[in-house]
Inverse folding.
């Protein structure tokens, strides 16, 4: 089966909210030797975005979006399960990662977490809707090297700025590298708020984190 056909099936599984078809596609992709992270980003993630666009146009209702998002998370967890090879790689650094307060979107953050873990990063995933104070407390408690935040709403991006201010107010800004991401977040925004780094997607996040850990 071609890569294009597998990607098409992954998109369709999300649109149809069909977990079994999704898992079957993952198994077929694995058999074909396809990179499962690629299937996740080009297939399943594209599917959830299409469902989101339908919701945005008023063609789909919120329960359908929630159902598709649940299937998307199942697919992400299933790929994680199949990708884990059980071998312990040397820990290269510690990163605290959260979706900011007021924001429940955690699918993309979950993908970033999974990919970073495969590269030997000790990721402390604080979940979603996490207040800035908690993020900083956890970074301090875990002696993190990097603090990463994800924001999917234009209204919650401001929390990434608040994080920078919280670090400055506590006099610990220089202790940490910070990284921001999420669909509405840009390199320009990162620069404007004084974040150390920005990544557009999970693969770029890995590259940036590995760079930050060697600086
Ligand atoms: Co919502 N939602 N949603 N939603 N949702 C969006 C974001 C929206 C664009 C949809 C739309 O209207 N077209 C819109 C935001 C508009 C805006 O602010 N500009 C929106 C809205 C409005 C809402 C609600 C307000 C809807 C309502 O209630 N009326 C509500 C908000 C709730 C809240 O947060 N307080 C809401 C709710 C939901 C669901 C719960 C139904 C569900 C989330 C389920 C979940 O995450 N557990 C949901 C979903 C699924 C979406 C869409 C369809 C898909 C998001 C997603 O998972 N994308 C989205 C529309 C869209 O994106 N087209 C939408 C796939 C994911 C793999 O991509 O998250 O971008 P992404 O992550 C990427 C990169 O951004 C990057 O790497 C990831 C992987 O490559 N990245 C990082 C992410 N974090 C990073 C961190 C990094 C580095 C890179 O470093 C730290």
């Amino acid at each position: 089966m071609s890569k294009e056909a597998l990607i098409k099936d992954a998109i369709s599984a999300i649109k149809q909210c069909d977990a079994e078809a999704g898992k079957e596609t993952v198994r077929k992709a694995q058999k074909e030797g396809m990179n499962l992270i690629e299937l996740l980003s080009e297939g399943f993630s594209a599917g959830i975005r299409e469902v989101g666009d339908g919701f945005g146009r008023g063609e789909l209702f919120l329960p359908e979006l929630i159902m598709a998002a649940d299937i998307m998370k199942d697919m992400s967890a299933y790929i994680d399960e199949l990708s884990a090879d059980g071998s312990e790689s040397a820990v290269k650094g510690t990163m605290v990662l959260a979706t900011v307060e007021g924001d429940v979107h955690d699918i993309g953050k979950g993908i970033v977490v999974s990919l970073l873990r495969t590269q030997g990063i000790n990721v402390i995933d604080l979940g979603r809707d996490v207040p800035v104070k908690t993020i900083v407390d956890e970074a301090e408690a875990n002696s993190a090297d990097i603090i990463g935040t994800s924001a999917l709403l234009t209204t919650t991006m401001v929390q990434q700025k608040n994080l920078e201010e919280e670090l400055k107010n506590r006099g610990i800004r220089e202790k940490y590298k910070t990284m921001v991401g999420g669909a509405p977040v840009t390199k320009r925004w990162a620069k404007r708020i004084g974040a150390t780094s920005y990544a557009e997607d999970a693969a770029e996040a890995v590259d940036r984190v590995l760079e930050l850990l060697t600086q």
About this structure: The two ends are 43 Å apart (CA to CA). The beta strands are 93-99, 121-125, 146-150, 177-181, 197-198.
